[in-house]
Structure of NADH-quinone oxidoreductase:
Amino acid sequence: MAKVTVDGITVEVPNGSTALQACEAAGKEIPRFCYHERLSIAGNCRMCLVEVEKAPKPVASCGFPIMDGMVIKTDTEVVRRARRAVMEFLLINHPLDCPICDQGGECDLQDQAYAYGGDHSRYAENKRAVKDKYLGPLVKTVMTRCIQCTRCVRFASEVAGVPELGATSRGENMEIGTYVEKALTSELSGNLIDICPVGALTSRPYAFTARPWELKKTDSIDATDATGTNIRVHARGPEVLRILPRTNDEVNEEWMADKGRFSIDGLKRKRLDRPWVRAHGRLHPATWQDAFVAIARAMQGVPGERIGAIVGDMCDAESMVALRDLMTALGSPNIDCRQDGAQYDLSRRDFYTFNSGIAGIEEADALLIVGADPRHDSPVINARIRKRWLAGAFPVGVIGAPASDLTYGYEVLGDQPSVLAGLIDGSLAFADALRGAKKPMIIVGQGALTRDDAAAVLAACWSLADAVGALSADWHGFNVLHQAASRVGALDLGLVPRAGARSVAGMMSGGVEVLWLLGADEFGAARIGPDTFVIYQGHHGDAGAARADVILPGATYVEKPGTYVNTEGRVQTAFQAVFPPGEAKEDWRILRAFSEVVGHTLPYDDLPAVRARLAEANPVFARQGLPRFGGGTGVAPAGDASALGSTPFGRAMGDYYLTNSISRASPTMQECSRTYSQPVLQAAE
């Protein structure tokens, strides 16, 4: 630690810190444009100038290393004049677009010009103009506003791993853009909008929509994938206008995937806002009471074993526990959350969670990816892997061909399950990298768990983790990477068929007479038998609603308070941002109301009582956060590790941008699919 004096305040900071970090440790605000805590230091803008004792001139604090005994002054006349001069220089070519700029009200340039700039300019020359660049359907550019801080260039190269942005020409002719005009090929491109300190990069779908002070901000959780990204929902009146990430270093840092950020225009399209009942082959509007009576009549005389339920991928834990209790009350053991047919061992929680934690990726020193495509399964987790890879000494092996480049160096070991056997017995060279690591990590994706031999693959991966030292008292390197936001919470609640009960496939093959779909659209609803009475409870007119005999309109994840459990088993709470449209209701309330009609009233009437029931069903719901595990040694998952099949590992996800009913209803995601996914899928075919 080094002692540094900042404006008379002595602080201790770690060796290797910069003068800017020392100033912040002393509680001093230092203006900056190019500096960002999660990016490399560029020193472009010079706005962070401070005076250092014995230095001949003001120094850029973002890149100036501290020394023991250093004396820094942040508010002298020299510093004030220097900052005014820098601001004057930055505004030479910046246009007066504030009244029409989407960054207005949350613009660093506005704030710092007011706080540190002068009241006049000495420059009267004409401002330069720069042609706008095309970066795809998500990011809008007004490059005349660019101050060339290069944050976007560094983000694309360092975090997103897609070095497609850069500077061309020099001096006054310097421009930021893609070297060849094309759409940015990153699932994290929306973060460019957040890190741009001016209005050069803004949201194309959100353009000219609202000002920040008009919006009501609500903390929530992104339910479009299983990462559990912390988000803030910005709404005006009944409409969600944008979603931004919240900082959480343990989960998403301050990044967010494009699908969760930009699919919100699907929240107001193809919505179900009233109950519907099918009569004479057509759906007709109905009252809630009529819909409940129609379901009760369909269930009358049907034994419990002929009733089934399928849970969708975006459900909150409250609605899932209510559905489980309803099915139990009706005498039905047929409930399944695995629309993709994945196989899990529920005997221990660490058999189906990301046990090292997302932040634990930075501690690992070797990685094996089995049947997963982190770039599409979870772009935020993929960025964390890249962050660790950039730190060096991090070999990455992949079993199964990913759909696209993973943005970091990796070795494809093959696509056959037999590769696992070769790693276990040490016959493959990559086994030495795993055994030589202090904290090896294995990530098992849904592509490995949706196979016929999934139990054997899971057991083999666990055996490999045990053999290479990934299961110890202080390190649990066995990780399952999920794609569905509701999956871990559903597994915690035991929403898989027990012995003798029917799975999704069994229910599809005519095994039930009444089938309840809770937001389930991804399993191929067209395969449901013609004689099955289908109740669809959800928020969009997607595949499940098209097959339904009764439709019960539910709420999306931004329209209800809910509990979600991410892929690492972290329990997080989302708050209600807006009300659902029309007559739509919160899902657990619908189930509670119907239970009264059929004479099996569920024992809770309000949200606290439902959450108490959750904690009773599984203690992990009793507290927020991530329940940590001890060592993973001892019991192994059920399955014969030697019974591996010969089918190559395939992809578990189709089109990244169209994975749920909200994104499929989104015109923005449809455009992204046409721009990014469809050419890739066609090439793969």
